[in-house]
Amino acid sequence: MLTRKLGRSGIEVSAMGLGGWAIGGPFNRLSDEGEESPMGWGQVDDIDLYQFHMGSHPVEEAGPVRKLMEDLVQEGKIRGYGWSTNDPDRARFFAEGENCIAVQFSLNVISDVPEMIALLDEFNIAGLNKHPLASGSLTGKFHDDYVFPEDDLRHGIDWKSERGQRRLKLVAALRDVLTSGGRTMAQGAIAWIWARDSHTIPIPGFKNVQQATENAKAMDFGPLTLEQFQQVEEILERAPETQ
Fold this sequence. Notes:
The protein is 33% helix and 12% strand. With 243 residues, it is an alpha/beta fold. It has one domain: TIM Barrel (Alpha-Beta Barrel). Helix 2 runs parallel beside helix 3 (114-123).
């Protein structure tokens, strides 16, 4: 199985996670009074990674949150923590904590974020990458007349709009390189993330067993080669940045 290190924790984990948003239930939490989470700490020995999911929480008010996380580490309840945020300043504040081992942020072929990647390398922390398939766009399954169901968060996307057409053209231009070697589009998009940096761990979402299986089989192929990665960057007219 393809694996990666969970940042400076040294914990070896699968190089890909499974995003459960589409099938998940309500979030659980631990209060600042130390009350037990509904999940029950006693069900596991400890938690490898505990994430703060308030992505817009003011960084100037994040000190007590980071301290709580550090206290949980000292109590042996968690082994490390991270912040789910797309903001580099917030990510940096947590990364400066002794036991911060990860940051969760959006990353995909179409939307690269060099500043966040640089942060991973600087602090040797893992990057858990949500939206690796650009909300499904990079599966290559959508077209001009595609309409999402009313209960889908993506309902209302107009593929005939200027933005929609631009996205479809980008995906079409990337198809050959992402599917090279027998990959599906989704597998190629995941492979680009692995090629982007050694700290990245994509967490693609899924709605059924077929999608979960397709995503997992991306590990059979591994990262894009340097040549394939550079092809992608040339198509998108970006300067290649990879490690």
